[in-house]
Amino acid sequence: MQVTRRSQFTGNYNTMNLNITQEQLSEYENRELGKGRLIQDIFPNLSRTEREFLMTGSTQQEWDDMFGESE
User: Fold this and answer.
1) What's the chain look like in SS3?
2) Do 2 and 15 touch, CB atoms closer than 8 A?
3) Cα separation of 66 and 71, whole Å?
4) Rounded CA gap, 29 and 23, in Å?
5) Domain residues of the chain, as ranges?
6) How many CB atoms lie within 10 A of CB 62?
């Protein structure tokens, strides 16, 4: 599923193709802050980078540009 998010860091719109269902995305987007399942429980098959994209809209390249490349 293609998901588009606005980066909290740059304001750019980024799109990523993620192996998720609409049901998973709806659960994540409709949960109350501080309640419901954790993102890693809703999307156990996604990488840390993919989950970060869902939360902040940022890509790995944006992280690397802002904070340096990960080790």
Assistant:
1) CEEEEECCCCCCEEEEECCCCHHHHHHHHHCCCCCCCCHHHHCCCCCHHHHHHHHHCCCHHHHHHHHCCCC
2) yes
3) 14
4) 10
5) 2-67
6) 19
Distance CA 67, CA 61 (A): 10
In terms of phi and psi (left: phi > 0; alpha: psi -120 to 50; beta: otherwise), the region of 37 is: beta
Q: What mean pLDDT comes out for the span 24-36? A: 88
Contact of 40 with 51, CB cutoff 8 Å: yes
Q: How far apart are CA 15 and CA 13, in angstroms?
A: 7
Computed over every residue of the chain, the mean pLDDT equals 92
Which tokens belong to 70? 């990960």
Tokens in use for 64? 């690397």
Q: What is the reported pLDDT for 31?
A: 86
